[in-house]
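Sequence in, structure out. Go.
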Amino acid sequence: ALLAVRKHCGQIMPSPVQAALTQVLSERSHVKEQLERYGRRRKMLAAALEQAGLKVAEECEAGLYLWVFDPADKADVTGALRAPGSGADWRLLDRMAHLGLIVAPESFYNARPGSHVRMALCVSDNEIQETAKRLVKFA
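Output:
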């Protein structure tokens, strides 16, 4: 009975979908296009962040996000106890929120105090350009 129910619960991919997916995955030109797209976005946003006095973590060379920090904020990130939401990552988040930018604090992703915020590159090129314009007001 479980086998009969499982077949109809959406866990089996229909043949036309399998065939389409096989075709899509055999064509690789989109990979280069996507790498170039994210490279352009990364370059544009990193330049705007730098101009705003912020830094992108050096290990942030690929992927869908930039890890950004404010080198002027010399907050203690050694693991000292402090109130949640009071770290350098939250201060930077607050400053960016005033520009209408949504970022995620580093402390969302680990248990230690953070100094970075995570900025997504997986938005449209127009949104990256708009973000770059808003960052001019940051400094």
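Check: The CA atoms of residues 52 and 138 lie 6 Å apart. Strands lie at 55-56, 65-69, 104-105, 116-120.
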